[in-house]
Design a protein that fits this description.
- It comes from Muraenolepis orangiensis (Patagonian moray cod).
- By secondary structure, the protein is an all-alpha fold.
- The chain contains one helix and no strands.
- It is rod-shaped.
Length: about 80
Amino acid sequence: MEGAAHDYSVTSHKGLTASKLCPGLEAESHCAQYAAEKRDEEKMCDHLIRAAKYRDHVTSTQLVQKIVHILTDKHGAWGNSCA
């Protein structure tokens, strides 16, 4: 009878150990998944920031070209269209 009780307690202990490990592995899996999601989110944010900077650069370049054209055109603000 003592042997059966011992076997049961060993089996019970092994089961507890395995059940303690599974949540740890599950948490590790969740952490890895969370980290991957955050990396993807960060990549998307970087992409959006780069796109906005490029858009702003293009817009400002076009605006500068328009201003230069207005200032240098003979029919522009300081042009001599009467002559």
